[in-house]
Amino acid sequence: MSKHQEVGELLAQLQQALEHHGHWQETSPSPEALGSKEPFAIDTLTCTEWLQWIFIPKMWFLTAHMHPLPVSFSISPYVEEALQGVKGHADITRVSQDIDTLFQTPSQ
Description:
InterPro entries: UCP006257, YqcC-like_dom, YqcC-like_sf. This is YqcC family protein. The protein has helices spanning 3-20, 31-34, 47-64, 76-82, 89-104. It is mainly α.
C-alpha cells in the first residue's frame, strides 16, 4: 500500500472518530476563522474544527492528487492537549498519533 493510500485510510478513521463522538459539524466556520495564520488556527478554531475544516481537507487534496506529502510533522501533542476532557479524546488522539507515526516513517 502506498503512503498516499495509508494517509487516506487514516484520514477516514479520523473523520469517523470525529463523527462518532459528535464533533463533525454541518456548517463551516466563517472564512475569517478559516483564514487564521496561527498554528492550528488556535486563535479562531477549536481543535476538532481545525481537524475537520483545515487538516483533513488539505491532506485529502494532497492524497487525491498524488501531490508530495509533508516530510515530517506532529499534530498529536496538540490534539492530545486540546481535547483533554472532551468526548472521544482517546480515539481521536490515537488516530492523530497513528498519522504522526506514518509521517515519521520514511517513504517507501
